[in-house]
C-alpha cells in the first residue's frame, strides 16, 4: 500500500511534517497467510462475550470451520482445532505483596549542583535530613495471576519516610594567649593551647590528636638574654672581731653585705624578685675577715686568675698574685704572694658552642588558617658544663654560626570531601520476575585534605525493582499422530502454542492469559505441525538420531598426531515383526569431522555373575558407556558355559562352571572329576516331566506375536546411558523350539 501525509484540513503535506508528530511511518508491508489445500480454514474469532463485575466469571469467543474444511474429518477434532476459547475475565481487584528489602534512605532530588571536570558536583546540598526509602511490590489479580505493578501502585513501590543523621564536626576552643618563655636565661618554649568543646559524630570532621586532658598544644621556641637580670652587691661592712677581749683590736671576724636582683632594662636599678636572677651565681652575703695586728704583714687582695687556653689543656696552668703592703715588725715570714693551679675542664676552664632549637611549627600570618607560613629556630650559647650563657660568649670566640634560621612551610587548608552527583538509576537487572535490582552511584571528585570531613563509605545505592509479570509463549506437547483413515502409516501431529504469565520463580506455576500480552507470535507454523508415522506390522521402525558424541582423536599410547577429530551419532531399527528381523539393518552410524578432540582409551566392563550370565559393556576413560571402541577380540564372555557341555539327563551348568544335578538328583562323578550321570534320590518325585512341550503344543508360531514385545525394557548402565533389553522368550510349534534374537544397543 502507499502512504501519504495530509494536514488536519485534508490537504496534502510534506512527509516530514507527519514524521515530526509520530513515532514513525506506518508499515508498507505486512505478513499474511494463504491456506494450503489440505489446511483447515476458519472464520475470524468473534469478540469475547462480556464479563460481569464478579471476578470469578469467564468469557469466551467462537469461530467456525469455513469452506471445504467443514467436511474434512480431521478438522472436526475439537482438541486439535478448538472452535470455542474460554478464559477468566479480567479482574478489577488487585492484591499487592511487598517484595525484597527496604532500599537505602534516598534524599529528594533537585538540589543545587555545579559542573566540575565532567561530573555533577554537589554544591552546598545537604547529605542528611529527611528522605524516603522504597520497597518493591508484586501485584496480582484476584485469581493470583501476576499483573503490572502500576495496577496496585503508581510507582510500583511502598514508600516511607526515613532520616539520614547529619554529621557534626569536632569543635575546639580558640587558641589561648602565648605563655611566657619557660627559661629566663637562654632557650625555652612558649605554649598556647585549645581544648575540646564537642566530639564529632555521624561522620563529622575528626579532631586533631588530643592529650589526656583533651587539649591540643602548639609550642614555639623562645630566647631570654642571660644578662637580663643580674645580682648587685653593696660594700662589705667593717670586720667584726670575734675576740671577747675588747682590748684587742685585731684578729679574725666576720663581715656582711646586702645583695639584690635588678633588671638590666631598669636604669634606676630597682630591685626585682630574686628568683629572676641566676640562683647558681648568687653572691655570698657574709664572709670571714681578719684585722691584722700592728706587728703582722699586710698583703693586698688577690688579683684575678690568669686565663686558661680555649683548649683547656690539663697541662696548662693559671696564676694569680698579690703584693706586700706592710712588712712584719717582728721578722715573721709574710704569706705567699702567688698561687698556681691546673686548667681543669668544667672546673676553672670552660668551652663554648652554639646550640640550635628544633624547627617550630608552621607559623601563619595573623588571622590566617592555612597557606604559606614560616618555621623558625633559635640560636643560643651553651658552656661545656651545660650551663646556658649569653650569646656574646660564643661571639667573642668567633665560633661559626648556622646559616638558616627560618624556612618556608605550608599548612594544608581544610578541604571537605567533594562528591559527584548521583547518576541516574540503572535499568533493572531483570526485565521481569523476582530478583531484579537497580542502582545508582556517585564518585569522589576531591578527597579529604587536612582535617576536612571524610568521604562517606556509601557511594552506591540500590533498590529492588517492582516485580513485573513475565509473559512468554509456551509450546504444548505433541498430540498423538493423526492418521487419515487408517491404523498405521503417515500422518500429522500438532501441538498448541499458548501465552502464559508467571513471576519468574520456579515455585510459581504459569497461567494462560490473552495472547495479545505476549506480543507477536515468534514461531512459524512448521513448529506447530510436523509429519509423523505409525509403524505398520512388518515395518522396521527407525529411532531418532542420538546426540553427537564428543570429539575424539585416533591415539597411540595416549598421544595423537591428528589435527582433526571425529564425532558420531547413530540411530537403530526396532523390529516390529519377528518374520522381518533379517530385512531390518541393525544400526545406522553417521560421522563428521570436528576440532578440539581428546584422546580416550576404552575398557571392557562386566557385572557380577547371575545364573551364569552377566552384562558386558564398553566404557570410555571419561566414564561414559559407549557402543564400539573396545576390541571385539578381548570382549569377556557374557554367558558362562561348562566344558564339556552338560548333556546328561537332569544336569545343568552351575555357577562354579562345572556340571551339577537338579534338585532331587545326586551327582555320580567319574575319576577325572567330570559328571558321569545324575541318580534319582529315593523318595523324590519328578514334577518336571513333559512341562517343556505342553504349553506350546499345537500353538501357531505367529499367534499373538505382539506379546513378544511386552517384555522390552530399558535398563540403565550409568547416568545418561541406557540399554534396550528383551526378556527371554521360548515357545514351541510342532515339537520344535523357536527362539527370538533381538539386537541390543546402548545409548
UniProtKB/TrEMBL annotation:
<keyword id="KW-0472">Membrane</keyword>
<dbReference type="InterPro" id="IPR051418">
    <property type="entry name" value="Spondin/Thrombospondin_T1"/>
</dbReference>
<feature type="domain" description="Spondin-like TSP1">
    <location>
        <begin position="170"/>
        <end position="214"/>
    </location>
</feature>
<dbReference type="GO" id="GO:0030036">
    <property type="term" value="P:actin cytoskeleton organization"/>
</dbReference>
<dbReference type="InterPro" id="IPR044004">
    <property type="entry name" value="TSP1_spondin_dom"/>
</dbReference>
<protein>
    <submittedName>
        <fullName>THS7B protein</fullName>
    </submittedName>
</protein>
<keyword id="KW-0677">Repeat</keyword>
<keyword id="KW-1133">Transmembrane helix</keyword>
<feature type="domain" description="Spondin-like TSP1">
    <location>
        <begin position="540"/>
        <end position="599"/>
    </location>
</feature>
<dbReference type="Pfam" id="PF19030">
    <property type="entry name" value="TSP1_ADAMTS"/>
</dbReference>
<feature type="domain" description="Thrombospondin type-1">
    <location>
        <begin position="644"/>
        <end position="683"/>
    </location>
</feature>
<keyword id="KW-0812">Transmembrane</keyword>
<dbReference type="Pfam" id="PF00090">
    <property type="entry name" value="TSP_1"/>
</dbReference>
<dbReference type="InterPro" id="IPR036383">
    <property type="entry name" value="TSP1_rpt_sf"/>
</dbReference>
<keyword id="KW-1015">Disulfide bond</keyword>
<keyword id="KW-0732">Signal</keyword>
<dbReference type="Pfam" id="PF19028">
    <property type="entry name" value="TSP1_spondin"/>
</dbReference>
<dbReference type="InterPro" id="IPR056991">
    <property type="entry name" value="TSP1_TSH7A-B_C"/>
</dbReference>
<feature type="domain" description="Spondin-like TSP1">
    <location>
        <begin position="417"/>
        <end position="470"/>
    </location>
</feature>
<dbReference type="Pfam" id="PF23308">
    <property type="entry name" value="TSP1_TSH7A-B_C"/>
</dbReference>
<keyword id="KW-0325">Glycoprotein</keyword>
<dbReference type="GO" id="GO:0005886">
    <property type="term" value="C:plasma membrane"/>
</dbReference>
<dbReference type="InterPro" id="IPR000884">
    <property type="entry name" value="TSP1_rpt"/>
</dbReference>
Amino acid at each position: 500500500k502507499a502512504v501519504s501525509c495530509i494536514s488536519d484540513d485534508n490537504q496534502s503535506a510534506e512527509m516530514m511534517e507527519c514524521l515530526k508528530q509520530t513515532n514513525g511511518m506506518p508499515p508498507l508491508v505486512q505478513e499474511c497467510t494463504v491456506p494450503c489445500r489440505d489446511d483447515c480454514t476458519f472464520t475470524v474469532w468473534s469478540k469475547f462475550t462480556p464479563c460481569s463485575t464478579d471476578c470469578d466469571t469467564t468469557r469466551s469467543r467462537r469461530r467456525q470451520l469455513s469452506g471445504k474444511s467443514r467436511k474434512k474429518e480431521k478438522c472436526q477434532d475439537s482438541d486439535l482445532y478448538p472452535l470455542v476459547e474460554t478464559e477468566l475475565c479480567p479482574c478489577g481487584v488487585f492484591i499487592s505483596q511487598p517484595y525484597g528489602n527496604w532500599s537505602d534512605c534516598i534524599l529528594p532530588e533537585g538540589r543545587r549542583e555545579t559542573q566540575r571536570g565532567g561530573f555533577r558536583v554537589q554544591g552546598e546540598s545537604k547529605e542528611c535530613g529527611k528522605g524516603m526509602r522504597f520497597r518493591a511490590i508484586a501485584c496480582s489479580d484476584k485469581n493470583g495471576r501476576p499483573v503490572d505493578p502500576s495496577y496496585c501502585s503508581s510507582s510500583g513501590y511502598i514508600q516511607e519516610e526515613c532520616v539520614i543523621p547529619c554529621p557534626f564536626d569536632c569543635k575546639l576552643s580558640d587558641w589561648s594567649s602565648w605563655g611566657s618563655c619557660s627559661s629566663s636565661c637562654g632557650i625555652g618554649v612558649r605554649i598556647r593551647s585549645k581544648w575540646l568543646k564537642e566530639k564529632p559524630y555521624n561522620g563529622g570532621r575528626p579532631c586533631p590528636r588530643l592529650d589526656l586532658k583533651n587539649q591540643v598544644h602548639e609550642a614555639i621556641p623562645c630566647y631570654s638574654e642571660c644578662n637580663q637580670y643580674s645580682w648587685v652587691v653593696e660594700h662589705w661592712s667593717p670586720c667584726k672581731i670575734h675576740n671577747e677581749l675588747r682590748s684587742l683590736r685585731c684578729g679574725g671576724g666576720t663581715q656582711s653585705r646586702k645583695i639584690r636582683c635588678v633588671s638590666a632594662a631598669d636604669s634606676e636599678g630597682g630591685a626585682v624578685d630574686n628568683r629572676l636572677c641566676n640562683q647558681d651565681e648568687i653572691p655570698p652575703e657574709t664572709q670571714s675577715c681578719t684585722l691584722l695586728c700592728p706587728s703582722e704583714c699586710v698583703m693586698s687582695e688577690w688579683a684575678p686568675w690568669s686565663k686558661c687556653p680555649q683548649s683547656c689543656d690539663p697541662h696548662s696552668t693559671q696564676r694569680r698574685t698579690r703584693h706586700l703592703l706592710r712588712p712584719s715588725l717582728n721578722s715573721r715570714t709574710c704569706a705567699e704572694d702567688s698561687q698556681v693551679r691546673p686548667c681543669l675542664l668544667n672546673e676553672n676552664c670552660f668551652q663554648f658552642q652554639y646550640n640550635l632549637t628544633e624547627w617550630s611549627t608552621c607559623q601563619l600570618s595573623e588571622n590566617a588558617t592555612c597557606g604559606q607560613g614560616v618555621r623558625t629556630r633559635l640560636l643560643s650559647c651553651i658552656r661545656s658544663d651545660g650551663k646556658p650563657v649569653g650569646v656574646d660568649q660564643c661571639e667573642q670566640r668567633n665560633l661559626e654560626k648556622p646559616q638558616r634560621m627560618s624556612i618556608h612551610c605550608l599548612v594544608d587548608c581544610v578541604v571537605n570531601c567533594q562528591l559527584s552527583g548521583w547518576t541516574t538509576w540503572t535499568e533493572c537487572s531483570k526485565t521481569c520476575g523476582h530478583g531484579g535490582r537497580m542502582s545508582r552511584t556517585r564518585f569522589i571528585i576531591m578527597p579529604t585534605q587536612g582535617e576536612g570531613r571524610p568521604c562517606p563509605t556509601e557511594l552506591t545505592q540500590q533498590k529492588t525493582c517492582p516485580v513485573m509479570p513475565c509473559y512468554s509463549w509456551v509450546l504444548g506437547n505433541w498430540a498423538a499422530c493423526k492418521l487419515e483413515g487408517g491404523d498405521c502409516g503417515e500422518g500429522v501431529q500438532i501441538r498448541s502454542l499458548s501465552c502464559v504469565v508467571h513471576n519468574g520463580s520456579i515455585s510459581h506455576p504459569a497461567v494462560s492469559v490473552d495472547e495479545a500480552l505476549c506480543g507477536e507470535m515468534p514461531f512459524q507454523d512448521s513448529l506447530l505441525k510436523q509429519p509423523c508415522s505409525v509403524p505398520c506390522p512388518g515395518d522396521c521402525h527407525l529411532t531418532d538420531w542420538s546426540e553427537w558424541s564428543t570429539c575424539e582423536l585416533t591415539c597411540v599410547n595416549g598421544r595423537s598426531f591428528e589435527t582433526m577429530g571425529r564425532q558420531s551419532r547413530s540411530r537403530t531399527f526396532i523390529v516390529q515383526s519377528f518374520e522381518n528381523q533379517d530385512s531390518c539393518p541393525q544400526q545406522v552410524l553417521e560421522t563428521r569431522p570436528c576440532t578440539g578432540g581428546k584422546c580416550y582409551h576404552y575398557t571392557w566392563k562386566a557385572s557380577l555373575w547371575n545364573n551364569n550370565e552377566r552384562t558386558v559393556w564398553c566404557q570410555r576413560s571419561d566414564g561414559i558407556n559407549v557402543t564400539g571402541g573396545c576390541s571385539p577380540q578381548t570382549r569377556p564372555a557374557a554367558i558362562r558355559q561348562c566344558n564339556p557341555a552338560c548333556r546328561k539327563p537332569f544336569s545343568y551348568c552351575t555357577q562354579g562352571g562345572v556340571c551339577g544335578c537338579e534338585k532331587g538328583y545326586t551327582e555320580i562323578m567319574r575319576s577325572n572329576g567330570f559328571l558321569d550321570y545324575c541318580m534319582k534320590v529315593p523318595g523324590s518325585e519328578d514334577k518336571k516331566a513333559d512341562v517343556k512341550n505342553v504349553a506350546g503344543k499345537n500353538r501357531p508360531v505367529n499367534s499373538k506375536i505382539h506379546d513378544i514385545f511386552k517384555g522390552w525394557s530399558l535398563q540403565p548402565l550409568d547416568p545418561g546411558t541406557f540399554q534396550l533389553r528383551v526378556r527371554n522368550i521360548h515357545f514351541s510349534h510342532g515339537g520344535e523350539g523357536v527362539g527370538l534374537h533381538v539386537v541390543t544397543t546402548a545409548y
